[in-house]
Amino acid sequence: MDERRRLAKEIELAATPEQVWQTIATPEGMSVWFVPHEHAGEEIEADFGGGNSQAGQVLEREPGRRVVYGAPGPDGEPPMTLEFLVEGKEGGTTVLRLVQSGFFGGDDWEAEYDGFGKGWDVFLNNLAEYFRHFPGLPVANVVATGFTERPGEAVWADLIARLGADPVLGERVRLTPEGLEPIEGVVDLRGESLLGIRTEHGLYRFMADDLHHMVSTTQYFYGVEVDRESRSAAWQSWLDRITGH
Known about the structure:
The chain has two domains: 1-136, Alpha-D-Glucose-1,6-Bisphosphate, Chain A, domain 4, CATH 3.30.530; 137-245, START domain (Alpha-D-Glucose-1,6-Bisphosphate, Chain A, domain 4). The chain has helices at residues 17-25, 27-31, 109-133, 152-163, 228-243; strands at residues 4-13, 37-40, 43-49, 52-62, 66-70, 80-88, 94-103, 139-147, 172-175, 183-191, 194-198, 202-209, 214-222. The protein has five helices and 13 strands. 27% of the residues are buried. β2 and β3 (43-49) form a beta hairpin. It is α+β, with helices and mostly antiparallel strands.
């Protein structure tokens, strides 16, 4: 039988509670560190790239302190919810807590749970980097996602080869993806099937997920004009060459 499980994350941010609240309680704010969010009628739609989107709504809201998102299922109850809690600390920092609750069924629920945890670590790191290096600037997002039956290790090795470098954390690097502008910056995230670059104007994240046979890039450009549609299409085409589509 499925059981309700909770995944909790916490991060201390160099920002005021008011600033943090804006990044978790509005579509524009969520776009700053997560994926592009937009109003879709009464709902909020998140764009994960490659034609993949997910819609939800605000289920509970305590302005300045707490907000809960979810999408009601067939029985009226949301199968999964996201709760954000904001708490100011002495010295001007703020603690943000995230609690994901939902049903994880099947034999691979532990892998699913672990995958969500790693994903939230990346996105919360994005939020910390935003407040550290780009506070207050608006964002333009570029996202692309591809799916493949190729082994995850092969997909990741192909991606790294096509970027033209396999850097380590803290290294200054120049990536040269074919057909796209070079990426110059500092490696601020590095892990198994994970690479993050901070540039002068934003963040690039590359990830592969073997469990879901997926590879993706999420990119954030702060305070600069970006043609989101053409860039997203170009990066989608680049990923499609890796996935074989």
